[in-house]
Each structure stands twice: as C-alpha cells, then as structure tokens.
Amino acid sequence: MNRPHFADIARELTEGIASGRFPVGSYLPTELELRDHYQTSRHTVRAALHELQQLGLVSRRKNAGTRVESMQPRNDFRPSLASVDDLVQFGSEHLRLVQSTQHIEASAKLAKTLRCAQGTPWLRVSSLRIDGDKDSPPVGWTDVYIDPAYDDVAEAAKENPDTLISSLIEARYGRGIDEIQQDVRAINVSAEMARRLRVEAGTAALEIVRRYLDASGATFEVSVTVHPAERFCVSMRLKRSPG
Fold it and tell me: How far is CA 151 from CA 86, 92, 120, in A?
C-alpha cells in the first residue's frame, strides 16, 4: 500500500469539513490518530494540517489540537515564516515537478547570486512548483543548486515531489540545516521564465534566494525561486526582543 500524499489527506479533511463531518468549532483527530489512520508519517500529516491552516479552515495551538474555524477556504496563500522549521514546512506545501537536472559551472552573474566563486561546479535541479493541480498555473519556478557529490539526490527529488531537497540531503548524508539566509527582491519576468510560468514577459514577480548552511557555516545548497506577483505573498511575524 502506497503512503498517501499530504495533498490527498488535506483534500479528504477539507471534504469532511465542507460536508459537516467536522463542524465549525469541533476538533480534528490528533496528529497521531491521523498518522495511524492514513498509515503515513507524522511529517506528512503535519503538512496536510498546515495546508488546511493556510486555507483558513483550521487553527492550531500547541497542546490544544486542530480546531475547525471555517467551512470555506481562503483563496490567498500567505505563509508565515518565523523559523527554520517554518520555512522547511512551507517548502513542502507545494509539489515539485522536476523539469531538468544538469551539471553546470557558475557564470559570473550566477556566482554573484549564489555568492560563490565563478566557475564553481553545481548540480542544478530545475522544477515547477504547483499546488497539487497539474492543470492550474504554477506557483513558481525553482532552480536548486547543490554539491555535485549529491548526484543521486536529483533522482530522489523526482521520486519524492513533496520533500524538500535539503531534507533529502539530510536523510541521505546527515548534513542538516542550521541556518537559512533568505533574500527577496522584485524582478520582471524574462521571456523564457514567462513561458515556463504561463505569464506575460515583463510581469512583476518575486525572486527568492535561499542559502542553506550546515552547523559549520558552509553552504551546501542554494535555491532561486521566481513567483509571479499575483500568485504569491510572503508574510512574516516579527516580535520585540525581551529586555
């Protein structure tokens, strides 16, 4: 029996909420109960519940459970990124459709973006990011640059479309994320990118560059994602430091 994808679990729970099986004000089964019911991992269950939370269907509080808040989902997508765990969770919310893998050497322009030396070798995995519906416009395009020594990760990325490449590297090589550096800037979509994302050339977009660092401070992965402006919004929560 194949494990269900988090999108399948989210869809079934959404249908349960819409049908009244889980009425507004009630609580969904616990993560452990859902894990056992769907015979999947707790990570997959959390991704499904996070999807419902982003849709405004539920709220989640530690030690309080998952409460149904609405029968109708919101249409916007507003992730709240406050920690490495949040960012990793956010990254698993959309399916990755790998379009190509290629060994490259960083050009002068790319080296500036990746903050590496010109000519540095990388394995580039290029993917469309979708919300689960292959017929709907893609949420974005991501080029992930990883150490060429992790060659087998490219194939694993195709086989595990809901798992971040950084998580695959950690699982296979034990090289985990200690810090993520993120830069966000506004750009106009190039003609080539416009074709990939199904928008007009020159459309406003966000380019998000994330550098994944291990505990030693070394960068082992860099991702460059382009999101058309009307399909994406980044929300962050800032809190005053104590004292």
Answer: 27, 21, 16
d(Cα 41, Cα 172) in Å, to the nearest integer? 17
Q: Is residue 79 part of a domain?
A: no
Are 100 and 117 in contact by the 8 Å Cβ rule? The answer is no
Structural domain ending residue among the three candidates 68, 93, 122 = 68
Full pLDDT tens readout for the chain, 243 residues: 467 778 889 889 998 998 999 999 999 999 999 999 999 888 889 888 988 887 789 998 888 899 999 987 764 434 444 555 545 444 555 678 999 999 999 999 999 999 999 999 999 999 998 876 667 788 899 999 999 989 899 899 989 887 889 888 888 888 888 888 889 899 999 999 999 999 999 999 999 999 998 878 889 999 999 999 888 776 666 666 554
Model pTM score: 0.62
CA distances from 234 to 30, 183, 201, 237 (A): 28, 12, 22, 10
Supply the range of the domain harboring residue 149: 84-231
61 and 100 both lie in a single domain: no
